[in-house]
Design goal:
By secondary structure, the protein is of the alpha+beta class. It is about 25% helix and about 25% strand.
């Protein structure tokens, strides 16, 4: 496949194919913008806190400002919080860039995974003519590299660094670069006046690279100055202090990384991600750079890597060199609803559905709790469809429509429910907000993912509604994951970190441990929703975008939230999962509770048909479940806490036991986003058809393969209005019925 294409289409063609909502201007004195049958406001409603007027950026950072990234504190503050691109850690401070190696010492003995932090750093990169700068601005950003500009009175220091890079690349004007050390370093290669030095600072090996003919001076003290330079230099963290490693890094020291780009593709049942580095030769020739791959990358690449490694709170990072590397990840299929064959007792299921259908409509809530309610309705509509009751399905779909249309329409002077657009920050904010979704733009993918999935369920049954209201749905998609780098309204894929492989929840990352994400499963729910919306509306770009995001983040969850293979957590870490992943640590906890059900369950909910992805490693599922049961207050009595979620998770490895418990406790306590109808459908599907078989892929992303007693059942959802032939990698071929789910059972 041509790596300049996605599904055979060029990036430019893809951008042109994206539905771009016209930036209609409101009439004078008005603040409502119409789009399709919906509208949004340009006036901040009273329930929403104001966003700052100042964004700390300079001319190199074009377009809508990125938030929710590992480096986002830089644009919210005069100087950054701690940044963790790994293997390096750094802080932008008045004296310059504080640089450290937090992965050199990683421990889990305190119940959390902790790196070495940054503190005063191993060294500080500064400017000879400016003891302290007044601010540091973001001067540019590519997919995982950023440029930071320290500038004052015509004196400039511009530093570039990013994920996976051991280098900091520097350019300077109006003075010389200086490197200050808390304690005088040990020089183990080179001497006073050389252009290249190998040093040990803070107990860690570094290299200082000046241009040919330049000199590092001051080597007998704790401040080194590069004199006789040519306006550029670099500094690198080395994996070891050997001359061979120094020589390897010297080959790339003046090949400055000027851009990074992730090019995803969907091919033959797999997501293929190519990570590209653009470099500029400051002296000599050549191309490429040295990079370090996270576990979710090196476990899925066939590219040749070196034997060198770095430590990090994510696990070992393996070192490669070149202009790119590629990962290939098998696609985990998803379905909009589970098979009818998973309904053990249709009459009992219809009774459960009717109980939910007969409930009085809930009032409108904030974007998170409204989203959870919409998600519940979407799931119930799918269960009703599987049960073959069009009337009950219609009840849930009509309520979804009523609620979405209310959210997607603004009246003059209205404060909620609605969405408003902030043009300064390039963000769509729902009112009423919650958990900082207004200020500082937290959790948008968590909240809006529920809306998008509910809209996708409605669009599947009512294409005319999708045409009329689709522009508002796609505003939400663009806010959290615009696939267009030139989108005039939103940053490119706001919430997702393309190199780290997962999303970040905080809009401003204003924490000493960097950014964080708690509910990885709600992130997955958003990407699931985008997949379904793209399929329901015939938008292949959004379908493939969701497929890429869902399957890439899945691998990160398996490595960092779950550590399914037991290779990444420190040996002294006493738990089998994390509740939160931070830039500089891993936390066994949540924002809202220390209860073990919540710590684990926040990374399971909402249970949907797509939650099957958590069952790719049933041995790990059993280990995780058994540990929870041994520690939770109720033990194996699931009728307390979030026990319903615990037993649903158990079903991914032991479905027979999980279904039997539910059958014996049909009135069990439920987590707020769960329903007994879907709980029963989930448990009995896994019991009757089998657990997830991850070894099989298909030529569509809308499939599941279940295995029970060594026999496979294949399920396919066909979004087309005509029959489709679907081929599986195990040799099975299914003719899928139009606009419905087809299941072929019990194949060995």
């Amino acid at each position: 496949m041509n790596r300049n294409t996605i599904n055979g289409r060029s990036p430019m063609a893809i951008l042109l194919a994206i539905i771009t909502i016209p930036m209609a201007c409101p009439a004078p004195g008005q603040d409502i913008v119409s789009t399709g049958s919906g509208s949004y406001s340009t006036r901040r409603p009273a329930p929403c806190k104001p966003l700052p007027e100042t964004i700390y950026r300079s001319g190199g950072l074009k377009g809508a400002v990125p938030t929710n990234q590992w480096w986002s504190s830089l644009v919210w503050k005069p100087f950054s919080q701690n940044l963790f691109p790994h293997p390096l850690g750094m802080t932008c401070a008045p004296e310059g860039l504080v640089v450290a190696y937090p992965g050199a010492s990683v421990t889990g003995g305190g119940g959390h995974i902790m790196g070495g932090g940054i503190g005063k750093g191993d060294l500080v990169i500064g400017h000879s003519a400016v003891p302290e700068f007044t601010r540091a601005d973001c001067d540019g950003a590519s997919d995982w590299f950023i440029d930071v500009a320290f500038a004052q009175d015509g004196k400039k220091l511009r530093l570039s660094f990013g994920h996976g890079s051991p280098f900091v690349f520097g350019r300077h004007e109006g003075g010389d670069p200086v490197v200050r050390f808390p304690q005088a370093p040990r020089i183990w290669s080179g001497r006073e006046g050389d252009a290249v030095l190998g040093i040990t600072a803070g107990g860690h090996p570094y290299a200082l690279f000046g241009p040919a003919g330049s000199k590092w001076t001051g080597s007998t003290g704790s401040t080194f100055t590069l004199t006789g330079g040519k306006g550029y230099f670099s500094i690198a963290l080395l994996p070891d202090d050997t001359k061979e490693t120094l020589g390897l890094f010297a080959q790339y020291a003046h090949l400055h990384v000027t851009g990074t780009k992730l090019v995803p593709g969907v091919e033959a049942g797999r997501v293929v991600n190519e990570y590209r580095f653009e470099t500029q030769a400051m002296e000599g020739g050549g191309s490429g750079t040295i990079f370090a791959l996270y576990p979710h990358q090196w476990k899925y690449t066939k590219d040749n890597l070196t034997a060198l490694t770095y430590g990090s709170v994510r696990g070992a990072m393996k070192v490669g060199a070149g202009s790119s590397f590629r990962t290939t990840v098998p696609i985990q299929g998803v379905l909009p609803h589970l098979p009818a064959e998973g309904i053990a007792d249709r009459d009992a299921m219809l009774a459960l559905l009717k109980l939910d259908a007969d409930k009085a409509p809930a009032g409108f809530a904030d974007t998170y709790w409204e989203g959870k309610h919409l998600g519940k309705l979407a799931t119930l509509a799918g269960v009703a469809e599987a049960a073959g009751d069009d009337g009950l399905r219609a009840v849930f779909l009509i309520e979804i429509r009523r609620r979405l249309e209310n959210w997607f329409t603004v009246s003059q002077g209205e404060d909620a429910p609605l969405f408003y657009y902030d043009s300064n920050w390039g963000a769509l904010v729902g009112s009423k907000p919650s958990y900082g979704s207004d200020m500082p733009l937290n959790d948008h993918h968590f909240h809006y993912g529920y809306f998008i999935r509910a809209a996708a369920e409605l669009a599947r049954h009512d294409p005319s509604w999708a045409r009329d209201w689709g522009p508002m749905v796609e505003l939400l998609i663009r806010d959290i994951a615009s696939p267009n780098p030139a989108d005039p309204m939103f940053p490119n894929i706001r919430c997702f970190d393309k190199y780290a492989g997962h999303s970040w929840a905080s809009g401003n990352a204003d924490f000493a441990d960097g950014n964080n994400q708690e509910s990885s499963s709600e992130s997955m729910n958003a990407w699931y929703g985008i997949m379904l919306w793209g399929a329901a509306t015939g938008n292949e770009v959004l379908r493939d975008l969701g497929t890429f995001l869902f399957n890439t983040e899945r691998t990160a969850i398996e490595e960092y939230w779950f550590d399914v293979s037991g290779t990444n957590y420190p040996e002294d870490f006493p738990h089998v999962a994390l509740g939160m992943v931070w830039g500089g640590k891993g936390a066994f906890g949540t924002w809202f509770s220390g209860d073990i059900d919540c710590i684990h369950g926040i990374n399971w909910l909402p249970f949907t048909p797509a939650s099957i992805y958590m069952g790719r490693f049933p041995g790990y599922v059993k280990t995780n479940h058994d540990r929870i049961v041994s520690k939770r207050k109720g033990g194996a009595d699931y009728n307390n806490g979030w026990g319903d979620l615990v037993v649903m998770f158990r079903a991914l490895a032991e479905p027979r036991e999980a279904a039997a418990w539910f059958d014996a406790h049909p009135d069990c306590k439920l987590e707020g986003g769960n329903t007994r109808a879907f709980m029963g459908h989930w448990l009995h599907t896994l019991d009757l058809l089998g657990i997830n078989d991850p070894t099989v892929v298909a030529d569509t992303p809308f499939f599941n393969v279940f295995v029970r007693d060594g026999k496979r059942s294949h399920a396919v959802f066909n979004y087309d209005s005509k029959p489709a032939t679907v081929r599986f990698s195990d040799g099975v071929t299914i003719t899928a019925k139009p606009s419905s789910l087809t299941t072929s059972q019990a194949r060995p």
